[in-house]
Amino acid sequence: MARKTLTLTTAALTASALALAGCSGSGDDEGGGGGGDTLRLWHYENPDSAMGVAWDRAIEIFEEETGATVEFEERSFEQIRTTASQVLNSDQAPDILEYNKGNATAGLLASQGLLSPIDDAVEEYGWDEMLAPSLQTTARYDDNGVMGSGSWYGIPNYGEYVQVYYNIDMFEEAGLEVPTTLEEFEDVLAAFADQGITPLSESAQEYPLGQLWYQLALTQADRDWVDAFQTYTDEVDFTGPEISYATQTVADWTEAGYISTDATGLVAEDAGVGFIDGSYPMFFSGSWWHGRFATEIQDFEWGTFLFPGAEMSPGSSGNLWVIPERSANPDLAAEFIDITMRPEIQNLMGNNGGVPVAAEPEAIEDEKSTELIENFNTLTDRDGLAFYPDWPTPTFYDDLNAGLQDLLNGTQSPEAIQEQLGEQYRSGIEEYTE
């Protein structure tokens, strides 16, 4: 296979946003884009993840069928998130990339004219017929970059959601069962803490703790509150029962030893590895970890369950394949997207711990993968995908992480943090929609 992989360091990223994208293509390229028969592709999935495995196979098929070469350039989530606006507005934009969905991410780039609308390709390939309506929400954006209507700007070929991963061996040793209510969940947390074990592997520098905070709010919320929070259908009261419960509970759980204050210095990778190495009995995070855990966890049995006491959980369609406005090969990019939607690729994803959107159910053979997909279907059947807490504004991801770090450190009270987050949320929406 002619695939070429280029890995960039964080140091290279910080030196210059444009330097980050400065890797040249094949010998036919004259700077920027793919050009000729080269498709420049970015994504940030681990090669052992379900998406990484499936997309590697899609690259092979694409190269076999088109005769083109895929030049894959590895980026981290943070690298793409922090540099996309600059790079996609330059001659160094790739032809296709994985990008985070939501108003503050794909919606923002669409409203800035940095992504190509792909309505014609959707009609040509029939992608709209492959995606359930709830999964189409994050693929379409209006002129202000608000999801749910307007043109298509991306295609998800997998779903995702947040759930509890748990160490079955540690549960059995402690004489504990999977909780089915929020009260039972807190009893499990207390039981581990009483044994001197921090029950939750967490990260406050990146997304895991923010997703737990949001999940706690969802235990008190309904769909109207989610719509207001995510799509601005009504004002959101940051002193109301949803956010007040979430913020105070994170503070209480930290004080009780359920969450370590060390999480302020940890990133998502640290939290995931902490679960992999058996240091923590539970990790609340996304389905994107599932394939990696299946590959790397060898020393104990593990399982999953939906967060108890809530009808909704953070989740949505997966990230999007998007085609930059400056893509040199948009037709090839669309052809690659279509390959990732084929049953062969979807089934491969499902059997490697992913959540495919168009797989053949009878083709999913792995027991853990079947459980993963069934949990996702449970959420979609009850309209339980509530998106993610950082989506409403371009800066709320950083705002929320900073606020939760202060909460764990005890440098601000829950009330002060809620007030701060409310101000940041409102000002972010005003700036975003003006």
Automatic annotation (TrEMBL):
<dbReference type="InterPro" id="IPR006059">
    <property type="entry name" value="SBP"/>
</dbReference>
<protein>
    <submittedName>
        <fullName>ABC transporter substrate-binding protein</fullName>
    </submittedName>
</protein>
<dbReference type="InterPro" id="IPR050490">
    <property type="entry name" value="Bact_solute-bd_prot1"/>
</dbReference>
<feature type="signal peptide">
    <location>
        <begin position="1"/>
        <end position="21"/>
    </location>
</feature>
<dbReference type="Pfam" id="PF13416">
    <property type="entry name" value="SBP_bac_8"/>
</dbReference>
<keyword id="KW-0732">Signal</keyword>
